[in-house]
Input
Amino acid sequence: MVEQRTPNPRVGGSNPSWPAKVLLADLLQGVDMKKVFSFLHQVQAELHKVTWPKREELMGATIIVLVFVLCFAVLLGTMDTAISMGIKKLLGQAGLA
Output
Protein backbone atom coordinates (compact mmCIF):
# COMPACT_ATOMS: atom_id res chain seq x y z
CA MET A 1 0.00 0.00 0.00
CA VAL A 2 1.34 3.43 -0.97
CA GLU A 3 1.44 6.17 1.67
CA GLN A 4 -0.74 9.17 0.76
CA ARG A 5 0.87 12.58 1.16
CA THR A 6 -0.50 16.06 0.78
CA PRO A 7 0.64 18.04 -2.26
CA ASN A 8 2.25 20.58 0.07
CA PRO A 9 3.99 18.76 2.93
CA ARG A 10 4.18 21.98 4.99
CA VAL A 11 0.37 22.16 5.18
CA GLY A 12 -1.40 19.91 7.65
CA GLY A 13 -4.47 18.05 6.48
CA SER A 14 -6.95 15.60 7.90
CA ASN A 15 -4.01 13.24 8.35
CA PRO A 16 -1.73 15.66 10.24
CA SER A 17 1.79 15.97 8.99
CA TRP A 18 2.82 17.09 12.48
CA PRO A 19 1.19 16.73 15.91
CA ALA A 20 -0.93 19.61 17.15
CA LYS A 21 0.82 20.90 20.27
CA VAL A 22 -0.26 24.13 21.86
CA LEU A 23 1.55 25.28 24.94
CA LEU A 24 0.04 27.53 27.57
CA ALA A 25 2.98 29.88 27.15
CA ASP A 26 2.10 30.22 23.46
CA LEU A 27 -1.51 31.09 24.30
CA LEU A 28 -0.49 33.69 26.88
CA GLN A 29 2.13 35.33 24.71
CA GLY A 30 1.45 39.05 24.53
CA VAL A 31 -1.29 38.94 27.20
CA ASP A 32 -1.10 41.68 29.82
CA MET A 33 -1.70 39.79 33.07
CA LYS A 34 -2.49 43.03 34.92
CA LYS A 35 -5.51 43.47 32.65
CA VAL A 36 -6.57 39.87 33.21
CA PHE A 37 -6.43 40.23 37.01
CA SER A 38 -8.22 43.58 36.80
CA PHE A 39 -10.98 41.96 34.76
CA LEU A 40 -11.33 39.09 37.23
CA HIS A 41 -11.49 41.57 40.13
CA GLN A 42 -14.28 43.47 38.35
CA VAL A 43 -16.16 40.20 37.75
CA GLN A 44 -15.95 39.38 41.44
CA ALA A 45 -17.22 42.86 42.35
CA GLU A 46 -20.18 42.49 39.97
CA LEU A 47 -21.04 39.06 41.39
CA HIS A 48 -21.30 40.62 44.85
CA LYS A 49 -23.93 43.04 43.47
CA VAL A 50 -26.15 40.22 42.17
CA THR A 51 -29.43 39.64 44.01
CA TRP A 52 -29.59 35.86 44.13
CA PRO A 53 -33.04 34.23 44.38
CA LYS A 54 -34.24 32.81 47.68
CA ARG A 55 -34.64 29.05 47.97
CA GLU A 56 -38.44 29.30 47.76
CA GLU A 57 -38.29 31.38 44.56
CA LEU A 58 -35.83 28.97 43.02
CA MET A 59 -37.96 25.93 43.90
CA GLY A 60 -41.09 27.60 42.51
CA ALA A 61 -39.39 28.48 39.23
CA THR A 62 -37.95 24.96 38.97
CA ILE A 63 -41.38 23.38 39.45
CA ILE A 64 -42.87 25.67 36.78
CA VAL A 65 -40.14 24.68 34.33
CA LEU A 66 -40.55 20.97 35.07
CA VAL A 67 -44.34 21.15 34.61
CA PHE A 68 -43.92 23.02 31.32
CA VAL A 69 -41.36 20.48 30.06
CA LEU A 70 -43.62 17.58 31.04
CA CYS A 71 -46.63 19.14 29.27
CA PHE A 72 -44.56 19.85 26.16
CA ALA A 73 -43.19 16.28 26.15
CA VAL A 74 -46.72 14.85 26.36
CA LEU A 75 -47.87 17.17 23.56
CA LEU A 76 -44.96 16.22 21.29
CA GLY A 77 -45.35 12.52 22.07
CA THR A 78 -49.07 12.66 21.24
CA MET A 79 -48.41 14.52 17.98
CA ASP A 80 -45.65 12.08 17.04
CA THR A 81 -47.88 9.07 17.68
CA ALA A 82 -50.79 10.58 15.74
CA ILE A 83 -48.63 11.49 12.75
CA SER A 84 -46.95 8.07 12.81
CA MET A 85 -50.30 6.28 12.89
CA GLY A 86 -51.61 8.48 10.06
CA ILE A 87 -48.60 7.76 7.86
CA LYS A 88 -48.85 4.00 8.56
CA LYS A 89 -52.54 4.09 7.67
CA LEU A 90 -51.90 5.97 4.43
CA LEU A 91 -49.08 3.62 3.42
CA GLY A 92 -51.18 0.59 4.37
CA GLN A 93 -54.05 1.75 2.15
CA ALA A 94 -51.67 2.39 -0.71
CA GLY A 95 -50.24 -1.11 -0.36
CA LEU A 96 -46.74 0.20 0.39
CA ALA A 97 -46.46 -1.10 3.93
User: Anything to note?
Assistant: The two ends are 47 Å apart (CA to CA). Residues 72 and 78 are 10 Å apart (CA to CA). Residues 24-94 form one domain.
